[in-house]
Amino acid sequence: MSQQYSADSAPKSALVTVADRRDWWRDAVIYQVYPRSFADSNGDGMGDLEGVRSRLPYLRDLGVDAVWLSPFYASPQADAGYDVADYRAVDPMFGNLLDADALIRDAHELGLRIIVDLVPNHSSDQHEWFKRALAEGPGSPTRERYHFRAGQGENGELPPNDWESIFGGPAWTRVTEPDGTPGEWYLHLFAPEQPDFDWDHPAVGDEFRSVLRFWLDMGVDGFRIDVAHGLVKAEGLPDLGSHEQLKLLGNDVMPFFDQDGVHEIYRQWRLVLDEYSGDRIFVAEAWTPTIERTANYVRPDELHQAFNFQYLSTHWDAEELRACIDRTLDAMRPVGAPATWVLSNHDVTRHATRFANPAGLGTQIRLAGDRELGLRRARAATLLMLALPGSAYLYQGEELGLPDVVDLPDEVRQDPAYFRGAGQDGFRDGCRVPIPWDREGSSYGFGGGGSWLPQPAGWGELSVEAQTGAAGSTLELYRAALAARSEQADLGAGDRVEWLKAPEGVLAFRRGAFVCTANTGGEAATVRAYGRVLLASGEVTVTDDGEAKVPADATVWWIAD
Ligand code: NOJ
């Protein structure tokens, strides 16, 4: 059924014809486009909005429901666009507002929804507000929109507290005052070019509600909220009292992360969103110590979804996966939010490379590992993920089985964390290399020119062109999985799975007529044949006596005959 959005709260540009299925997001497959690296329409080596628009039919044919675009706003690009100088403008390197409008319209015509990234924890240091705050000096009202503080020590030469930047080094930078003297410090949980807003100041909230409306009026279907757990800082900015901050991250509530006060902000945002027609959504990037605390972000009057980073960090291990799946579903059920599942994004080593290496190396890996093993496991892990109830996130290029590029020369790196030393995220460029569309040609069809990060030799063999129609290719596996997920088995529906008895190392669960068996072990396993094989990530052999041999690191989807 296709229906137009009503025009009462949206201007003409938001008149769209996406299939208006209520609660579409509960089981949606959402594809992350990293605009720099997806498709380059003007041959300058940098992806752009027009490039994305030209490839929308590919995404429709892949079978995803929505596209989440990483930031394309005006930005000096100190953190690849997560440093926004103007929240209402498109950076010229990506195009302009007309291109954004055309992209949203075309997507809707193809039945795809568009989710944009909102970066409310910090702005760029080139944002008008911050430039004014610097120029107007200590005590000026414009400084109150950020966290400016006097330093400690005799002459204020020490940072105001012991917080560290996620990208390494202190979370504070001292400014030179307009009169040329060393002055106050400002807080930046990320790079110095990303000053944190002070969300206690009412102008900050007003501004972001207005930014929400700007993009809702443009017709977007939702927002991914960057650092959603970081907006509110503990009263008085207390010391952490530990020099092991990076180890604590994600394991503990920190004075700058996951403070209870953030939830009031999202309740207000929800009111804004709900004024608009069309079932639009928020998804939180919220790193919290536990999935139960993540569930707080998706209570009925707050956000719709939150990324499940616990799942992303889980190893390819049946017991660990089962525990994480159970805990996730149990945490989301009481708040009525769908579980989400994700294996890769622009901040972590691609799962084909994570699984190519021994477990326990974390999500930032600089080793190629055993690529064949990694790809086998990645394909199996994807089929497992897509069989779970809830919504799944894909990161561009994973449908091609792309590995991380682990040997980028240091001189081409752009990740700010890399330059700030021991940050946890120093190697994110490896998952951001522009994707290959064609077997050959300049930048393998990414654009007419070069590519802002060099693509490795052999990239063409992994291209969309090389894999399209190729039996057994990863791209065809994704296409078949997405088609089967929605057309034949309605796999995203519901909020539970029924576990079945299975040999060690194997996960087996039923969802009505559908059964998924995933063999995470290093050896082939024998399981019951639960009907007809709907799809498999490896070669399955079904015997006459109702059993099936599932190879190591493979997932099989079964449907009752
Ligand atoms: C999370 C984003 O995913 C990451 O790329 C960025 O560096 C930080 N937030 C800071 O905005």
TrEMBL record:
Top-rank taxon, per record: Bacteria
Cross-referenced SUPFAM superfamilies: (Trans)glycosidases (SSF51445)
Biological processes annotated in GO: oligosaccharide catabolic process
Gene3D superfamilies: Glycosidases (3.20.20.80), Oligo-1,6-glucosidase, Domain 2 (3.90.400.10)
Domain Glycosyl hydrolase family 13 catalytic residue range list: 32-428
A Gene Ontology molecular function term of the record: alpha-amylase activity
Protein name according to UniProt: Alpha-glucosidase
Organism: Streptomyces dioscori
Lineage: Bacteria, Bacillati, Actinomycetota, Actinomycetes, Kitasatosporales
